[in-house]
Amino acid sequence: MSKIPAKAIKPRFNNRFSRQIAPHVNRELKLAQRAERAGKNRQAFQHLENAHVLGQASTYWHVKAHWQMLQWAARQRQLSEFIGQVIRVFGAATKTVWGLVPQGNTGGANISPFATLPINPRLQQLIHAAKQSSARQSSSARAGH
After folding, report:
1. Name one Pfam family in it (predicted).
2. Number of domains, the chain
3. What local confidence, expressed as pLDDT, does residue 138 receive?
C-alpha cells in the first residue's frame, strides 16, 4: 500500500478569509431574504448562489449557503432542490476543509456539485480582496507584528 504524503491530506482552515468575506456573504444572504419576502423567489436564489460562490472557500460560509438553499427549497416546495441541498450540506461540511470544492460552482441542485464554473467578475474581485487581506494578516502575524 502506498503512503499518501501528509501535505496532501492536511486540512486548510481559512479563519482569516472567513472573517474577511463575511460582510459580503451576509449582504447576499440579506438580499436573498428581502427578495424572497417580496415574492422574487428566483432573484432570492440568485443571491444565495452569490453567497455560495463568495463563501465556498470557508467551511462555515459554504455550509451556511447550502443550509440557506435547503431552507429556501423547503419553503418553495422544490423537492429536487431540497434533496440536492441535503447532499451538498454534507459535502460542504466534509470536503471544504480539504479544499475539495470546484471554483465558481453556484451550489444549486441544477449544477453538478463537481462542476467548475466561471466566477462573476464582481464576486471574483471580492474573493480576491478577501484572500489578499487575509494573506496580509497571516504574514503580519507570522512576522510578529
Report:
1. DUF3703
2. 1
3. 59
CA–CA distances in Å: residue 60 to residues 18, 74, 141: 8, 21, 22
The pTM (predicted TM-score) of the whole model is 0.85
pLDDT score, position 141: 56
Which domain covers residue 75, as residue numbers? 15-138
Helices 121-143 + 15-37 axis angle, to 10 = 150
Q: Are 91 and 57 in contact (CB under 8 A)?
A: no
Q: Which of 60, 7, 50, 43 is nearest to 28 (CA)?
A: 50
Residue 83 covered by a domain: yes
Total residue length of the chain: 145
Q: Does residue 62 form part of some domain?
A: yes
Report the distance separating Cα 26 and Cα 18, nearest Å.
11
> Contact 66/95 with Cβ under 8 angstroms?
no
Q: Is residue 9 part of a domain?
A: no
The series of mean pLDDT values per 10 residues for the chain, 145 residues long, is: 45 77 97 98 98 96 98 98 98 93 96 96 97 74 56
Continuous H helices in the chain: 15-37, 41-55, 59-76, 79-95, 121-143
